[in-house]
Amino acid sequence: MLRDITLGQYYQTESVLHKLDPRVKIGGTLLFILTLFFYKNFLGYLAAILFLAAVIRLSHVPFSYMIKGMRSILFLLLITVAFNLFLTPGTVLVAFWKLKITQEGLKAAVTIALRLTMLIIGSSLMTLTTTPNNLTDGMEKMMGFMKIFKAPVHEMAMMMSIALRFIPILLEETDKIMKAQMARGADFESGNLIARAKAMVPLLVPLFISAFRRANDLAMAMEARCYRGGEGRTKMKPLQYKKRDYLAYLCMVGFMAGSIWLGRLPVL
Amino acid sequence: MSIVKTKDLVFEYIRRDEEGNVEGITTAVDHVNLTVREGSFIAILGHNGSGKSTLAKHINAILDPTEGTVWVDGMDTADPEKLWDIRQRAGMVFQNPDNQIIGQVVEEDVGFGPENMGVPTEEIWQRVEESLRAVGMYEYRKYSPNKLSGGQKQRVSIAGVLAMHPKVIVLDEPTAMLDPSGRKEVIRAVRALNQVEGVTVILITHYMEEIVHADQVFVMDQGRIAMEGTPREVFSRVEELKSLRLDVPQVTLLAYELKKRGLELPDGILTTEELVKALCG
Amino acid sequence: MSIILDHVNYIYGGDTPLAVKALDDICLTIPDGQFLGIIGHTGSGKSTLVQHLNGLLKASSGHIYFDGQDIYEKGYDLKALRSKVGLVFQYPEHQLFEIDVFTDVCFGPKNLGLSQSEVQYRAYEALKSVGLPEDLYYQSPFELSGGQKRRVAIAGTLAMKPQVLILDEPTAGLDPRGRDEILDLIKKLQTESGMTILLVSHSMEDVAEYVDRILVINKGSILLDGVPREVFRHYQELEQIGLAAPQVTYIMHALREKGLEVDDSVTTIDEAVDQIAGLFRR
Fold this sequence. Notes:
The complex is a heterotrimer. Chain A is mostly helical.
């Protein structure tokens, strides 16, 4: 189950999207998310869905793979939708027991569901098509101006990239530890909340110890390979805008302008 | 010429209890004198806790000597000015392949060292290609390390060190977590490194089959060098090795047992061919 | 009649196109008291196989019978099965978590719901049987050496009094003496208590000397099954899948090729010494 999380994972394949400069993808994702909040009618959302579908096609990442990653946050999504559906006051459409669904609530629920889903798919599209290293490179470069304030931009970026690399390794390890303790009769599933929290101790202690050990080993390995922070470092893959990147920016701005115009037309 | 040299090297660490009070001092490396000739293949053997890994970490200046001196290519490892030169000159490969690969893609990981050294972009690409070819992993350059086998991951680690153009590579039990085919593949890459690229190799291990081709073997015990010589010399002292918690390859053991039964055989037989020749004439 | 696997399949990754057949139609009978070596390279499915035997993984199809009972039958007590079929994983670091060794060994029997005194008695007995020095009982398990940690992990499973003990690569990362000590301990447990032992390994040399029977797993199915000398006779097949017979087998083959009248199915050094020495004395 744990391995199903595709959020923040990279999907190796060849596509235009994979080749784009990470700054374009980060900027584009942010703009896309921002745009979602400007729509007043469903035409805007329709435009966004079509745009997203087109970009997904371009990415060559199987849609089913993306959806698999959504499963883990489905619960969160449902709760948010339920809250909006039942707790928004307005013209009552249906009422049963103590719950009522209002027209405004329905609209809010659909809107929030659309926004959240697209937000998640949009941002996972970014991580699926960008290697974490590339991603952090992009962020590092975009945040470069922060260095004036002595912010450890490079270090933060490096930390993030390492964290991302170790997620699958630690997940696999969690799985192994869980099995090892279950073989000794540990029970992670039954009991009340307190009992379950207590049952996590045999899982968390070995996991933490292992994580610290890995961190220690990795720090040593990095030092042994002459790592000494960002200063004086060169890049194997320096970021340089190419023609396609400017083109992508142009598409993005075009989409924004177009869909916001559509989304604010006085229909629906 | 010696590429690595230690003189009366001592390393002690202080054990502390939970409150941070000193419980005692452990001497992990105890007056070790070692000279490694440039271009040679050195093996350091020893049981777990014999101090062999601690010794190795001195060559890369990860640890500083408590007493004595370590020179790498003529530079004193205790000299902070020379730290990065030493780490570039003496590369290190560790035991757990997962805990030393930094990159998410094979080629990015191999480029990590050169990036840190400030090598220009174009040259990094050259070095990455050369190094990956040297360990036979060029076809995998676009792979995620998580998709590789243990042996392949270790070869990537070796390439990562090789891309820094070191004169000596220290491998600290690089095969301890691998299966037999992975072990063979790593040792083959290490030997090629030594013979084709001329890199000095210091291999730390407790697998006896891996050191048969070494030029010189050092056996460590309790922080000291307990035995030293060519593999043949070392392997002819079967009982002594056993008392140091080690063993010898099956063929050596067989020859040794046969000798005890009164058969006329030379000392320290290392390969099947040698034994067959000795027995069948 | 202890464990029977009847056409067991395990498909990994469900019904996605990425599904992998990790176990392919395994049929196997493991009699009581046998010392069985399970050999295969990384990813061959050997670990997957043993995780089925205590119900940690559930077969996609097929049946597993333990003591004549189908473990997939409705109402079968899987928790009880896990105490009867003890599984010790490769890295003891994955299971040690308590503040001291003794408490850690108590974890298993405590989960069985036994009384405090029974739990402690069993832990003591288990630690005794793995030969851990008594002054280490109240030390943190994290400060032990690799070999000692392994002993504690084995004790943690023994304290549940299993009828079958499965060990997944119990010697990985140990030095030669440490390896021999653990293997000797396992052999001792088998002969003294009559437990069925399943030893998962990728080292032929290790298992050849100890086990009664070897099972070679490749790509999720059983490639070879028999007594060691029977299995090593197929050393060429073993090589094709990235494994090898013990070095001594190769020596004997080479000698035979040179015209020496030795038995080339020999699998241990002692046998080889007897053979060759006997030949030369004549």
